[in-house]
Write a structure and sequence with these properties.
This protein is an alpha/beta fold and 389 residues long. The protein has helices spanning 24-41, 55-59, 74-82, 99-108, 119-132, 157-166, 189-212, 225-230, 250-254, 287-290, 356-360, and strands at residues 19-23, 44-45, 69-71, 87-93, 111-116, 136-141, 171-177, 219-222, 239-240, 265-275, 280-283, 307-309, 324-325, 330-333, 348-352, 365-369, 381-384. The strands form two sheets. Strands 1, 10, 11, 12, 13, 14, 15, 16 and 17 form a nine-stranded mixed beta sheet that branches. An eight-stranded parallel beta sheet has the order 2-9-8-7-6-5-4-3.
């Protein structure tokens, strides 16, 4: 894989724009905060790397309280397996046509744990393992209220699915998992705590039913940064698969997963034009650089397509936001007390994204700064990442 190449003068003043900037100090603080939360709740952390997609980031997430990693694509599974990660949960419902690819990843030396909520798919996994001799660990997905995928914890077919997997020669029924994606609709700590309890109760109930039927259920896995950080307790749960906590974004700050000061990833951009008659400036971070995700649209403080900051990462007060995006252009209204003259063409700025997962996916790597060890403008490292499926 080709490494990202930068100019000899490695500062935010000289990098090509737009590009992705990662503050290592903030990343480390965010990881430490989640580690404390997991220890408080007596669970291990299985970091979900669907956003970071980067070995250097993953290397900061190792330790005795880390149980492995979770991914959302088989390309991610391949990438991390090739780099020595041996316990990988493919946290998306498997389809039979992907079993060959998952088996090849295991041949690299990793265990790829699969997920399903479908009896027909479970039978296909059993058939495949019988025919090939491949051994797969499998988790059953439970719906804890998001209504996206998974079985209701009281569904009669849960035990049929569990028995099919448990009785197979080359399949290990590893347990149950769920994802409280609907925690993103919460607007208070009390609401997050309630969703966290519903998430916990759903998988624990499912696990207890499976055990009462005489089958093992060692893994009880939940996954959501808001619930992992704010759950009152996680009794009966063994691990959490939180992910976005590493970087944070404006939406996560608005739903109380982090604060604006915790945001570790931003997009470096520069001013490309003025429209004094319309009171706005343009920047070279548009829809492709930022994504068109409007996560904050339905909350109190809508930041459009991104929240503007100065080169040091300090958010402007009053706020400046990207109100409209075109493919390569962002349009930023400039209102009092700010003036267009404060933002001459060529001035460099940073933008905090609405949804960091979407934004980061467009970039080949991170230009790493460190707001504690340097001035926050010097590039101290360059970390590659992957994208695709």
């Amino acid at each position: 894989m080709k490494e990202l190449i930068v100019s000899k003068a490695k500062t935010l003043h000289t990098l090509p724009t737009p590009c992705l900037v990662l503050d290592r100090a903030k990343l480390r603080r965010n990881i430490a905060r989640m580690t404390v939360a997991c220890a408080r709740n007596g669970v291990t952390l299985r970091p979900h790397l669907k956003t970071a997609k980067s070995i250097p980031v993953a290397n900061l997430l190792t330790g005795p309280n880390v149980s492995g990693i979770a991914v959302s694509t088989l390309l991610e599974a391949e990438y991390f397996a090739q780099n020595g990660f041996q316990d990988i949960q493919y946290a998306v419902g498997i389809t039979p046509d992907k079993l060959d690819r998952a088996a090849r990843i295991q041949q690299i030396g990793a265990r790829v744990t699969l997920v399903t909520d479908n009896l027909g798919t479970a039978r296909e996994i059993c058939r495949y393992t019988d025919e090939t001799g491949t051994v797969f660990h499998v988790l059953i997905e439970i719906d804890c209220g998001e209504r996206r995928s998974g079985l209701d914890p009281s569904a009669p077919e849960l035990l049929d699915l569990a028995r099919t997997l448990a009785d197979a020669n080359n399949v290990v029924l590893d347990g149950v998992m769920t994802h409280a994606g609907h925690s993103y609709t919460c607007r208070s700590l009390a609401e997050i705590e309630a969703v966290a309890e519903a998430e916990r109760l759903a998988v624990v109930t499912a696990a207890e039913r499976i055990r009462a039927a005489g089958m093992a259920c060692p893994t009880v896995s939940v996954g959501s940064s808001p619930t992992a950080l704010h759950a009152r307790h996680l009794t009966g749960v063994t691990e959490t698969r939180a992910g976005v906590f590493m970087f944070g974004d404006v939406f996560q700050a608005q739903i109380l997963t982090c604060t604006l000061d915790d945001l570790a990833v931003s997009v470096l951009t520069e001013v490309t034009g003025h429209r004094a008659d319309l009171g706005h400036m343009t920047i070279d971070a548009g829809g492709l650089a930022m994504s068109k995700d409007r996560s904050t649209e339905n909350v109190e403080n809508d930041v459009g397509f991104g929240l503007m900051a100065d080169l040091s990462g300090e958010v402007f007060a009053p706020q400046l936001t990207i109100a409209r995006v075109y493919q390569e252009h962002g349009l930023v209204p400039v209102t009092e007390p700010h003036r267009l003259e404060d933002f001459p063409i060529g001035r460099r700025l940073r933008v905090y994204p609405n949804h960091v997962c979407m934004t980061a996916s467009m970039y080949p790597g991170y230009f790493v700064v460190d707001s504690e060890e340097s001035d926050g403008v010097e590039v101290v490292e360059e970390w590659s990442r992957i994208s695709g499926w």
